[in-house]
Design goal:
Elements: E1 2-5, H1 10-18, E2 23-26, E3 31-36, H2 40-50, E4 59-61, H3 65-70, E5 87-92, H4 98-103, E6 107-111, H5 116-124, E7 128-129, H6 144-151, E8 157-160, E9 169-172, E10 179-182, H7 188-194
Parallel strand pairs: 1-8, 2-8, 4-6, 5-9
Antiparallel strand pairs: 2-3, 3-7, 4-7, 5-6, 9-10
Helix pairs in contact: 1-5
Length: 199
């Protein structure tokens, strides 16, 4: 597994993503496994190497709300008040969204990461899935050495850097009221306050 500094990684990571390969990357939440969310083969591979339950959806990272809208995600206009941030929203998909076919779902968990390098990578490639870098049931990797121990032979590139230390907070907006699915880096009460929603 090749290691590369975060300050020098953009071109190589973009190339890997566009080729359908996977990359270990220090996101603003945890070390994640990045891959193209628009390539079915990449999606299949990450489920396989993580031994991940197929019923567990993947969070997809975008560089902007506009890109999510362009790809058929029904994004409420006021989410721009919060993003970028370590907060994930589960949102419904338009009938023509390519994500319906790729993920076999009518909704998608999305996030705009608070990481400028990662947003640049996404803008030059595709929206990316980014589950934590660990096989299901194991502790998330915290560095490239641990990524190597888990995934050598399956992932060819690891970006060295310091990730955040908490997963994102997940909130579903698929029903009438916001629903907390996972407490994470940003308290649910803070999200409700910023978005002017009532609990």
């Amino acid at each position: 597994m090749k290691r590369i500094k975060k300050s020098e990684c953009v071109e190589e990571v973009v190339s890997e993503i566009l080729s359908g390969n996977l990359v270990c990357f220090p996101t603003d939440t945890l070390y994640g496994i990045l891959g193209s969310a628009l390539r079915k083969d990449a999606v299949e591979k990450v489920y396989r190497i993580k031994d991940r339950d197929r019923k567990k959806p993947l969070i997809v990272l975008f560089d902007s709300i506009k890109k999510a809208l362009d790809l058929g995600v029904k994004v409420p206009g006021n989410l721009s008040k919060l993003y970028p941030a370590p907060v994930t929203f589960v949102l419904p998909l338009e009938p023509e969204s390519p994500f319906r076919q790729i993920f076999q779902r009518d909704n998608l968990a999305i996030r705009i990461p608070d990481d400028e390098t990662l947003r640049k990578i996404i803008s030059l490639s595709h929206p990316v899935f980014a589950p934590s870098a660990n096989p299901q049931g194991k502790s998330p990797a915290e560095n490239c050495r641990e990524c190597y121990a888990y995934f050598d032979g399956e992932i060819t590139l690891c970006v060295e850097g310091k990730p955040g230390n908490k997963p994102s907070t997940i909130v579903s907006l698929t029903e009438e009221r916001p629903k907390l699915l996972r407490e994470g880096a940003v308290p649910f009460e803070k999200i409700l306050e910023v978005m002017s929603w009532k609990d």
